[in-house]
Design brief:
four-stranded antiparallel sheet, about 300 residues, about 10% strand, 10 helices, 4 strands
């Protein structure tokens, strides 16, 4: 395609957008609203996937040991635990390490509050499957020298179906919103073709090809869709960044959320692709369907 032709197509598309005026702004507003809700759904999906992935990658049991456990008993305990089916990793945390961790992460001065180290030694056990975590915990609880066994698989197991439901719901809602945007693009191009039907007839009479007539309308549709996607991306990512800014970053819960930079990268790529695809597809459908109808 020659550069001269491209300039002509772009100029005609911009003239179409200018002619649309108020109706074009309404269509752009509808596109922004649909794609903004779609962006929010995608952010929910990102975070739900992140939570599920973190959960399965960090399935663990915290085993607190009695202070009477000596080095020999500790070695036997670790050997026994490592031999259990479903155990992926065993990390020993001494009393001193536990105290130091609490000292670094607590808002209080522990040296002033306590004289002796009150924290027990422990083992952090990572497992490979939620199906085996109960049997592993029961086995360890029956061993001597074990003070307490904690794991959150049961409560998190109840939460996970909720996040699966959110993922599926957001996926189908995303399809509906993308379809609504597509419908808006189709209608906008239809109105543009109808408004310029006399001009199109003249172009056809002087020998303009269908491809030559189609391109300005396709560029117009891509403009509305991509601009709407860009505005939706800026609003959604800006709101997410603002929310994350006020989340207490010292709180371990922060690990449950996808970082702002990662959300902006993923959302930017997806919204760019969606904007181009929806605009192109909507324009093609509308032009192919309505161009010849208006020329009859």
């Amino acid at each position: 395609m020659q550069l001269r032709a491209i300039r002509f197509f772009v100029r005609e598309a911009l003239l179409n957008i200018k002619r649309n005026g108020h109706s074009g702004m309404i269509m752009l507003g509808q596109t922004v609203v649909s794609l903004l809700i779609l962006s929010i759904c995608l952010i929910f999906i990102f975070n739900a996937n992140h939570l599920v992935t973190n959960f399965f990658n960090n399935l663990e049991i915290n085993v607190f040991l009695d202070d009477t456990v000596d080095d020999v008993a500790l070695t036997q305990l670790q050997r026994h635990v490592r031999g259990l089916e479903g155990v992926r990793e065993v990390v020993y945390i001494s009393k001193a390490e536990a105290y130091q961790w609490m000292k670094e992460n607590s808002p209080f001065n522990l040296d002033e509050l306590v004289r002796d180290n009150p924290f027990p030694a422990s083992m952090r056990i990572k497992v490979t499957s939620t199906k085996l975590i109960n049997s592993i915990a029961d086995d360890i609880s029956s061993l001597s020298g074990i003070e307490e066994v904690n794991y959150a698989a049961e409560s998190l197991g109840k939460i996970l179906p909720v996040f699966y439901f959110i993922q599926v719901s957001c996926f189908f809602l995303s399809i509906i919103l993308a379809s609504m945007t597509l419908f808006s693009i189709v209608n906008s191009i239809k109105l543009a073709i109808h408004a310029r039907r006399q001009e199109i007839r003249i172009m056809r009479l002087v020998g303009a090809t269908d491809r030559f007539i189609r391109w300005p309308f396709m560029i117009e549709g891509m403009f509305y869709s991509f601009t709407g996607a860009l505005i939706a991306f800026v609003l959604a990512s800006g709101a997410y960044a603002l929310i994350m800014k006020y989340v207490n970053i010292s709180n371990p819960v922060i690990n449950l959320f996808v970082s702002t930079s990662q959300v902006m990268l993923n959302l930017g790529v997806l919204m760019g692709i969606i904007g181009i695809l929806v605009g192109t597809l909507g324009s093609m459908i509308s032009v192919d369907k309505h161009l010849h109808v208006q020329l009859r």
